[in-house]
Amino acid sequence: MIELINLHVKYGRRQEPIVKGAHAKFENKHLILGPNGSGKTTLFRAIAGLAPISSGRILIDGVDLDKIYSKPGLLAINLSEVYSVFHLGAYDHLRLFMDLTGGDIDLALKMLEDLGLSIDLLRKRKPWELSAGQQKVFSTVIALFSNAKHVLLDEPFEQLDPARKSKLIEYLREYKGVLLLNTHETWLLSALKDWNAHLMFEGRLYGSLHAGELVKASLVVGDVPDAMLRFTVSNKTYSLIRGEVGESLSRLITLDRIYELSLGEASNI
Amino acid sequence: MTLYLRLKIKDMLTNPELLGWGIGFIEFWVLMWIFVFSWVPGETPWKIYVVKANVTLAYSFLGLFSMSSVAIGLSYSLFYTSRVARYITKFTKVGALKFMIEDFLGSLFAILIFALTIFMSVIGFSYAKWKIIALPENPLGVVIDLVIGGVALYWFAYMIALGVIVSGRTKAITMTSYIPLIFGFIAYSQLWIDLGNLAYIIPLCSLPALLTYHGMGAYPPRGAYLFWLSSDKLLPAINLRLAAISVFAWTIIFIILSLILLRKSKGLPIEEIRL
Fold first, then answer.
1. How far apart are the CA of B92 and the nearest CA of chain A, in angstroms?
2. Is A142 helix (H, G, I), strand (E, B) or coil?
3. Contact B164, B179 (CB under 8 A)
4. How confident is the model at residue A261 (pLDDT cuts 50, 70, 90)?
């Protein structure tokens, strides 16, 4: 289980925190939905020890992140920056991380092949020479096949074609372990209805809710009594309510649209 | 040998920038030194001695130059892997101590390969020109000097990378990574000038004296090596004990400063490194 306790993350001493007081427990499969720039990736970077924690704590299986040393199989993340250690080909990086984590390279290669990345391509190109979509696939596969109990997937569907998206969803459904997946795309709510869902706006984490419930939820401006959830974006309060009053969350397609809504550019709320 | 160590070595020995600066660029100066700048008397009793002195100076100074060029790439690589190192040492089987040791050993091995390539090419080209195999008087001494130089330069590069991270001036890495090469140039300038007692104080400046001593078996001067080679005037000899103390002291200073900065950088979890 990953537990966040009043977590604040900021990069510069004078900078505003990017993650602001996050509290959560993640012990199954979780979607974290939020628009671009809401702090989702920074939250994941902090959990993986890649971003500085300014206050609060992160516990993984009850152990403080600062006290975790050399624990293969505890956590893996799909950030490309992690898998570009050397000036070497992608295949060497795959070999390295499967070796360091005790992962299964044959299974990883099979999934990479399934998702359109051949071993020849991996031998020829360095990780940063792959296209953005290929880089995402490459790091997602390493994370999933690192034999880790907790896997953090940052926007794994970004720049994937529909066929690869559905293949990846199959892999995610079958995965035995704690999965945290962040995205700004609301169509995933329908695809992963049995997952837990959290929302993240302007560095604040909200939830959890059941993804299946969110599919049917609608977004309205203002503080509505009996709302499933209330959150603030650009000093405007929004409420998520059951039923079809207002804008259906799953019809927003991307949560980036929340900024348009907050500017009053959408007339249908 | 672990896969991480093997890939670290492969990374450094196949990196085109390191090969270009550490070998390509320096080999140009090796060729210039042997075939353009060197003058050796004809068939005189002095010929062998002069060739040997010339060759020793060539691999001492150009070897150091090559190693300081490689240190530029090392600073970059240490800078960019510092944050990832935190992830690797937390969530893979490589702990912080093992990571540091393997990174150090891999880098040192590669630095030595670069320096030995320059050494071998100086010997080879000088044989091609003068038909004399000018091997060092004390080969083990030369290798030990190169190892010490490699150790010093690794930690110098690490200290620079961490200094940039801790100061938060990450854009400065492009400029600061060249500091080892600047010191390499200062040491190189001793071919023409005598820095006086500064030779013992400036980092890396004493190393060519140790290499020259082990290569020729004779006490070198404190500076102005080319003048010493071509003139029969006596120059002040270097104090070899002070030269060795200087090289060791700077190596230890680089290591201590790196470890202090490592703690401040919050990159590699130094708390775990308990020897």
1. 4
2. helix
3. no
4. low
Give residue B166's pLDDT. Answer: 87
- Centre a 10 Å sphere on the Cβ of residue B231 and count the other Cβ atoms it contains: 10
For B54-72, give one letter per residue: b (16+ CB within 10 A) or e: bbbbbbbbbbbbbbbbbbb
Residue found under tokens 């290929």: A134
Mean per-residue pLDDT, A58-68: 94
Q: Which of A158, A207, A163 is nearest to A28 (CA)?
A: A207
- CB contact at 8 A, B24 and A106: no
More confident: A140 or A164: A140
Closest CA of chain A from B15, distance in Å: 7
Mutate to test the interface with A, among B19, B77, B91 (most CBs of A within 10 A): B91
Q: Which residues of B touch A45 (CB under 8 A)?
A: none
Q: Which of these ranges, A86-95, A160-169, B40-49, B55-64, has the smallest mean pLDDT? A: B40-49
> What's the pLDDT band for A267 if we cut at 50, 70, 90?
very low
Q: State the distance between the two ends of chain A, measured CA to CA, in whole angstroms.
A: 38
Residue A226 Rama label (left phi>0; alpha psi -120 to 50; beta): left
Is pLDDT at A266 greater than 60 in this prediction? no
Answer whether B91 touches A (CB < 8 Å). yes
Q: Which residues pair with A160 in a beta bridge?
A: none
Nearest Cα neighbor of B183 from B207, B162, B164 is B207
The 10s digit of each residue's pLDDT in A223-258 is 888 888 888 888 888 888 887 777 777 777 677 776
What mean pLDDT is reported for chain B?
A: 90
pTM for the model stands at: 0.86
- pLDDT(B275) > 70: no
DSSP state, residue B221: B
Q: Tell me what the mean pLDDT of segment A96-108 comes to.
A: 94
Pairing, β A217-221 against β A236-242? antiparallel
Q: Report d(CA A225, CA A229) in Å as an integer.
A: 10
Under DSSP, is residue A267 helix (H, G, I), strand (E, B) or coil? Answer: coil
Please, what sign has the CA dihedral across residues B5, B11, B14, B18?
negative
* Prediction ipTM score: 0.89
Cβ atoms of residues A136 and A128 within 8 Å: no
CB pairs under 8 A between A and B: 86
Token pair in block for residue A83: 């898998």
Residues A226, A245 contacting (CB under 8 angstroms): no
The CB density around residue B140, as the number of other CB atoms within 10 Å, is: 9
Alpha-carbon span B91 to A193, nearest angstrom: 30
